[in-house]
């Protein structure tokens, strides 16, 4: 692993910085969190600008519209964009951070041709239809059923319910896990990964309100939804393995730019603590120092994981992504707790005219609770680390199989 930029990487970094300096002031402000059409327009516009400038899909293949750069250059892109305060991927989260990479690794050339360039241009928004009311950590227990129909069995008819589907309201496509094997068969073997167009008849959405008052999730009800067999990624029954590829990207690279954000936030918290009495408390100073060390270590881990993926045959992050996901999500919660304590009363504010802080501290704190749940809970990551990295025996399970 190289810790310093090569001359080519340094040149790339400087060109990108200059482009960000020139482009960011031209952007409209971020729309309100629940104005979904405006959020889609804003995030898609940013993605289109990146695409026109050659900064979309840094390490995606050039034949599908990516730049064909190395994962290290991709990391430089994430670091510089975050340092410059560029918009986050927003509603493009699923498409850019895990559905797109899964298609590159597993889909047919026709499927890649159809979807990858559109994702990169910001024209196609994706969501993830994995979780169900009774299948979260134990994802392999999913029951949404897909049965082949048609004269030559040319489409699947899908029935079931998905939940916690982020950004479903603005999505064009869904990475959908369905059960194609018998309901009472081995649960990991009967799962299939499908591309579902969200405008297919039979797809209904019911928005779910979060504790922070946002409607970023939906429940997705699927009734006789007909999906062409041509939309299947990989073989029928091989969906569990493909879902693990999706998770490797989601956990391994999905939160990388947030480490840069968290390091900046910690500097702000330290400055705030100095202004207030909080700095007099040695516990507060110790917590700031611990978190600084933790985020530095996480950044080094990101570089290690990226370097490992760069040298692997398939470019898919390994189980080290679970170490990153576990440590980052827990450190991120400690950061928000510390921020709240240092800020004092303002930290409880949502829409409060007495709040002196120009941010959404109450919302941020509630939102941080989700970090240790989304993309697989901390307990599940500990199980994966125990079994796949430390080689400990599998946890006992009443049913055959295990957790996501
Ligand atoms: C912000 C956010 C966004 C999300 N977006 C999506 C999305 O777009 N698409 C999607 O499909 N899903 C999404 N999810 C759902 C997410 O993947 C699930 O919430 C998560 O996998 C946990 O499942 P569950 O909520 O059913 O909890 P459960 O699985 O019911 O878990 C409840 C508790 O039991 C613990 N537990 C369960 N099994 C074990 C075990 N074997 N060992 C030890 N402890 C265990 C868990 O850690 C947890 O603390 C999102 C969740 C959040 C918070």
How would you describe the shape? globular
SSE pattern: HHHHHEEEEEEEEHHHHHH
Estimate the helix proportion, in percent: 40-55%
Helix count from the secondary structure assignment: 11
Total strands: the figure is 8
Q: Which ions and ligands are bound to the chains?
A: flavin-adenine dinucleotide
- Mean pLDDT across the residues is 90
* Main sheet specs: 4 strands, mixed
Strand content is 5-15%
Rg of Cα set:
22 Å
Strand line-up in the sheet with most strands: 1-4-5-8
Low-confidence stretches: none
Based on helices, strands and strand pairing, what is the structural class?
alpha+beta
Give the N-terminus to C-terminus distance in angstroms: 30 Å
Map the helices and strands.
Blueprint: H1 7-23, H2 36-52, H3 71-83, H4 93-106, H5 109-120, E1 126-129, E2 145-149, E3 155-166, E4 173-179, E5 191-197, E6 203-208, E7 217-228, E8 232-233, H6 239-252, H7 256-275, H8 282-311, H9 320-343, H10 361-368, H11 378-389
Parallel strand pairs: 1-4
Antiparallel strand pairs: 2-3, 3-7, 4-5, 5-8, 6-7
Helix pairs in contact: 1-3, 3-7, 4-5, 4-6, 6-9, 7-8, 7-9, 8-9, 9-10, 9-11
Would you mind describing this structure in some detail?
By secondary structure, this protein is of the alpha+beta class. The protein contains eleven helices and eight strands. The strands form two sheets. A four-stranded mixed beta sheet has the order 1-4-5-8. It has a four-stranded antiparallel beta sheet with strand order 2-3-7-6, with no helix packed on it. A hairpin with an 8-residue loop joins strand 6 and strand 7 (217-228). The longest helix has 30 residues, at 282-311. It is globular. The relative contact order is 0.10. Bound molecules: flavin-adenine dinucleotide (FAD). Flavin-adenine dinucleotide binds at residues 127-131, 136-137, 164-166, 370, 373-374, 376-377, 379-380, 383, 403. Flavin-adenine dinucleotide is lined by residues 127-131, 136-137, 164-166, 370, 373-374, 376-377, 379-380, 383, 403.
């Amino acid at each position: 692993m190289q810790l310093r930029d090569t001359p080519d990487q340094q040149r790339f970094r400087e060109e990108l910085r200059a482009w960000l300096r020139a482009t960011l002031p031209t952007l409209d402000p971020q729309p309100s969190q629940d104005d979904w059409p405006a959020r889609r327009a804003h995030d898609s516009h940013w993605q289109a600008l990146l695409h026109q400038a050659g900064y979309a899909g840094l390490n995606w293949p050039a034949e599908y519209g990516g730049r064909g750069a190395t994962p290290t250059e991709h990391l430089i892109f994430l670091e510089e964009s975050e340092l410059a305060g560029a918009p986050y991927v927003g509603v493009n989260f699923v498409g850019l951070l895990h559905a797109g990479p899964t298609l590159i690794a597993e889909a047919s050339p026709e499927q890649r041709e159809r979807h990858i360039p559109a994702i990169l241009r910001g024209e196609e928004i994706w969501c993830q239809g994995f979780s169900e009311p009774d299948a979260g950590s134990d994802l392999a227990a999913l029951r949404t059923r897909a049965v082949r129909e048609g004269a030559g069995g040319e489409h699947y008819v899908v029935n079931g319910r998905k939940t916690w589907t982020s950004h479903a309201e603005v999505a064009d496509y869904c990475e959908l896990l369905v059960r194609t094997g018998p309901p009472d068969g081995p649960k990991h073997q009967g799962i299939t990964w499908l591309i579902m167009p969200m405008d297919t008849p039979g797809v209904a959405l019911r928005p779910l309100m979060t504790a922070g008052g946002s409607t970023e999730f939906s429940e997705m009800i699927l009734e006789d939804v007909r999906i062409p067999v041509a939309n299947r990624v990989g073989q029928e029954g091989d969906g569990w393995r493909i879902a693990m590829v999706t998770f490797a990207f989601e956990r391994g690279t999905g939160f990388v730019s947030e480490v840069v954000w968290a390091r900046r936030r910690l500097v702000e918290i330290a400055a705030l603590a100095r202004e207030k009495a909080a700095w007099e408390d040695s516990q507060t100073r110790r917590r700031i120092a611990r978190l600084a060390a933790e985020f530095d270590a996480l950044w080094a881990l990101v570089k290690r994981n990226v370097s490992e993926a760069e040298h692997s045959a398939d470019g898919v992050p390994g189980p080290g992504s679970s170490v990153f996901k576990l440590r980052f999500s827990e450190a991120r919660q400690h950061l928000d707790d510390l921020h709240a304590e240092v800020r004092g009363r303002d930290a409880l504010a949502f829409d409060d005219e007495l709040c002196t802080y120009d941010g959404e501290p109450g919302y941020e704190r509630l939102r941080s609770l989700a970090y240790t749940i989304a993309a697989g809970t901390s307990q599940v990551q500990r199980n994966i680390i125990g079994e796949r990295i430390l080689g400990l025996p599998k946890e006992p399970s009443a049913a055959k199989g295990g957790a996501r």
